[in-house]
Amino acid sequence: MTYQEQNKQKINLAFVLCSLNFGGAEKLVLDLIKNLDKQKFNIHLLTIKGSGDLLSQFQETRAKIILFDKKSKIGLKTIWQLFRYFKKEKIEIVHTHLFAGDTWGRIAACLARVPVIISTEHNVNLDEGYFKKLIKRILSHFTKKIIAVSAAVKDYQIKTEKIPAQKIEVIYNGINLQKFPYFTDYVFHQATPTLGIIGRLEVQKGHLLLLQALSLVCQKHPAVKLMIVGQGSEQNNIQTIITKLGMEKSVIWQKPQADIIPYLAKLDLLVAPSLWEGLGIVVLEALACGVPVIASKVDGIKEIIVDGKNGFLFEKGNQQELAAKIINLINHPENLEQIRKSGSETIKQKFDIVDISQKYQKIYLDLYENIINQ
What we know:
Layout: H1 3-6, E1 11-17, H2 24-35, E2 41-47, H3 55-60, E3 64-67, H4 76-88, E4 93-97, H5 98-111, E5 116-121, H6 130-140, E6 145-148, H7 151-159, E7 168-170, E8 194-198, H8 207-220, E9 225-229, H9 235-244, E10 251-254, H10 261-264, E11 269-272, H11 281-289, E12 293-296, E13 312-314, H12 319-331, H13 336-350, H14 353-372
């Protein structure tokens, strides 16, 4: 008996996030809510640590939004609040994201005996210690399916986090191709190029490496500018390095915003020098628009970019190679048009959020049907 054959009420589906700040996980949930079949699902969104800059966009989806605000480290009150909500609303599927959402969301869902618990793993989490890995391993036993956003994330979960391979399925993150149209009027400003790095100001994202590389680039091309878009715990360290290198006039600071198209439109080149990366949403967004990308050869990024075909890769942590690639591109931009087109075509073929949402929806329905048919 399939879901369609039952002619029952809508399935109560709850997403659990840490907060509603800018980030790849938050963008994925927002896009899923927009694209899932509202005839099949009543959609709920719960957060562990309050609101965020994306709240207004989530409100536009008309999903039922509940913002909890975990104060204590253990979060017993938050577990109780989630538990009561799941019971009261008769939640049938819980889909959790990121460590806070995964941990408190799955514990509460288990206690509330939610039939289907799903988690999406968004990163390779090199910064997580043994205790967090142990928690995730334990909670995986109560999780019907774990979605990895790249093959690299799946491999990491199996080898490092010891998650059973049969529980994990790879579904790439996707983007709204209508929101990120191809820039037909793109021009590479060879004399005064603007590079950009867009993302959280955290160690993972490699800002300090890029600044060191940029200092080498400026020796050959002093008119190069770098736009930094983001906020995070590394802002003071980044500013200190900029001052130490004497590059204040070469750097443009911008605050993050929901619509990054205006920022992408100002760039000649996006740089993604991450030290590790589950996939890299901003890389997808830039490629879709036809903004050339130079990225570190790590994890999920290697599943997006083929060096010299649809973008450029350099060895992780190698500031000399990064600088050399930037300089070579400035000196020889002849092949950029073909690379731009190839990058955009890659996104259309593999990372369309409409297709990605259908894959998630199929998992929801298949797991739900398995439960009710037992």
